[in-house]
Amino acid sequence: EVQLVESGGGLVQPGRSLKLSCAASGFTFSNYYMAWVRQAPKKGLEWVATISTSGSRTYYPDSVKGRFTISRDNAKSSLYLQMNSLKSEDTATYYCARQKTTRVSLFDYWGQGVMVTVSS
Amino acid sequence: DIQMTQSPSSLPASLGERVTISCRASQGISNNLNWYQQKPDGTIKPLIYYTSNLQSGVPSRFSGSGSGTDYSLTISSLEPEDFAMYYCQQDASFPYTFGAGTKLELK
Known about the structure:
heterodimer, A: mainly beta, four-stranded antiparallel beta sheet, globular, B: seven-stranded mixed beta sheet
């Protein structure tokens, strides 16, 4: 059974950093692109980052580019999101998601999400 | 960036009813359109990929169609578990973008 379990969320002050982790199991992690998607309170979904199977390619929207870094450790079947210079608008539930295939970018498995609150 | 406009934002409906949710892209996305369902507890489930392909395990009452800039999700006969939020998402180009969502509510 595919499982994605996020951790590392919490309350953080504006301007500070936080690192999220996602532990994957039930599939060969190194074979899949992975992503982070977030959802601000009472708002819709927003794609945050995608990483290739080897980690050599990463993609971000302008809203987080230069502040967030997605990475992975295939030996540990783990995905990470390093978030720097956090802003109040980064407050959201962050979901780890698996991309179906390298050609089909559907997010076919999602974690339960981890809450990040940016506030002084 | 490609903007995704979903309609309606809220859709009251009855059990057994047929409903359709629409999604319009700000430019052509060549059928690179996915649909998701989100339950009140936050659980997100993929439904359809590449416009009309049913994800494994999704009931056949769900279907998708469209082309160019206009796409739709249809549920042929509503079941109690279908009342939830629905989102479209384009993966034609980065940044991937989602529609604002449609809340399917029991009338």
